[in-house]
Amino acid sequence: MNDEIVVLAFDIFGTTVDWHTGVARQVDEIATRQGVRLDAEAFADAWRDRYLPSMRRVNDGERDWAYLDTLHRESLDDLLETQQLGDLFDEEARRQLVLAWHRLPAWPDAVEGLTRLRRRYVLAALSNGGFALITHLVKAANLPFDCVLSAELARAYKPDPRPYRTAVALLDVLPERVLMVAAHAWDLDGARDAGLRTAFLERPQEKGPHRAADRAADATSDLSVTGFVELAEALGC
Amino acid sequence: MNDEIVVLAFDIFGTTVDWHTGVARQVDEIATRQGVRLDAEAFADAWRDRYLPSMRRVNDGERDWAYLDTLHRESLDDLLETQQLGDLFDEEARRQLVLAWHRLPAWPDAVEGLTRLRRRYVLAALSNGGFALITHLVKAANLPFDCVLSAELARAYKPDPRPYRTAVALLDVLPERVLMVAAHAWDLDGARDAGLRTAFLERPQEKGPHRAADRAADATSDLSVTGFVELAEALGC
Q: Which InterPro entries match (chains A, B) (predicted)?
C-alpha cells in the first residue's frame, strides 16, 4: 500500500488531540471562575454526545450549513438549560467554553509520528472542525501538517462523502492515493465510501477513563495501528 | 497597526518564492532533455505574461472556473504554438513544464522572516495557485505557514474581492484584522477593496534582471518593507 499512498488525511478530535482531557480542563477552569461546581468530565462527555446528532441534522438537510462553532454553541446552550445551569454562565463564559475546542492537547505520540511521516507524505488535517478552529488548534499544538482541510470547505460533515471528496479534489489526487487515519469506525466507513484507503489508529482513552472508545475489532480498515509512531513505521518512515 | 492584526496573508509567486529563476531553470532542464535550445528566461517571462489575462477571463465570466494548472497548460500550449516549438514538446514534457510552478525556490529571507512572524500571527498563504500547487510548493520550500488558502476555494482569482473575502470568512476574522503582504500593487489594491490591511514587500528581482518589478512608489499600502526580516521587525517580531 505504501507506494500508492501520497496523502495522509488525519482526523483531529480524539485521533490527533485529546478532546476529553482538554475540554474537561477548560470547563473546570471556566466553571470555577463563574463560581460553579460541576463534574467537568461528565459535562465534556455530555457536550460531545450532542456532536454527531447535531452534524447529522446538517447532512440530512434538516437545517442549513452551520460551522462547528455554531453547533457547539447551540449544544452548549441546550446542555446548560437541561442541567439547570443556564443562569450561571453568561455570554462571555459561553464564548470561552466554545473556544475550548480551539485549543486542545496533542496526544503524546502525535508530533513525533507526524514529523516522521511528513518527510514522505503530504499531511492534511481533515476534520469536522471549522477551518479557523483547526488552524488555531494545529498552530497551538505545534502539529506539523502541510495543510488544513475542513468539512467547512464542503459545507457537509464527515461521514458524508462530500468532505472526503472535496479534500481529494483540492489535493488533486485519486481517492485511492489518500489514506484516512482516524480513531472512529464511522469516519473510516465514510472515507471508504468516498474511495479513500483507511487506517484505524487506536486511542483507547479518547472518551476518558470511564467510557469505551472504538477498538480495532470494531473498525473495518486497510491498516490498523496503536499509535502515530507505529503508523510511521508501518508506512516506512 | 500591530495590535489589531491577527492574520498575515502572503502572496506566493514573486513575493515569497522566486518564480522567474525557478521556472526558467526548469524550462532549461526540460528543453535540454527534449534536445531543444531556447532562451529559458525569456520563455518563462512570456509564459508569465499570459498569467493575468488568463485569470481575467475567469473573473469576468468569459469562461467557467479553471484552476491555475489548467490556465498554465493552456497558455503553455499557446506559447509553444506561437514560438513554433509545438512539435518539440510532447505531452509528458508539457506536464513537467506545468509542474515547474509547483516547486520554486523561496527568496532567501522568507523562511527566517516567516518563522519570526509565526510566533505572533497566524500565517496564511493566499495565492492564485491551486490548493494542491500551493501545498506542494510550501512543503518543498519548507515555508512555515499555518494554513494554505487558494483562489480555488473562492473559484475566483485575485484581485477579484472573492478570494480575499473567502480567506477572511474561513479564518473567521474581521477583514481589517488581516494584513495582505504582496510584491504587486494590483494584489494590494484588491485586498484593500475587500477591506484588508496591506503591506508592500519589495522584490526588485521578481521579474528577473531585465524587467522592472513593482516598486514601493508604485503601490498604495498601509506599510512598505524591503524584505521579510524588515516585515518581522516592523510588526514587533
A: 2-HAD (IPR006328), HAD-like_sf (IPR036412), HAD-SF_hydro_IA (IPR006439), HAD_sf (IPR023214), PGP-like_dom2 (IPR023198), S-2-haloacid_dehalogenase (IPR051540)
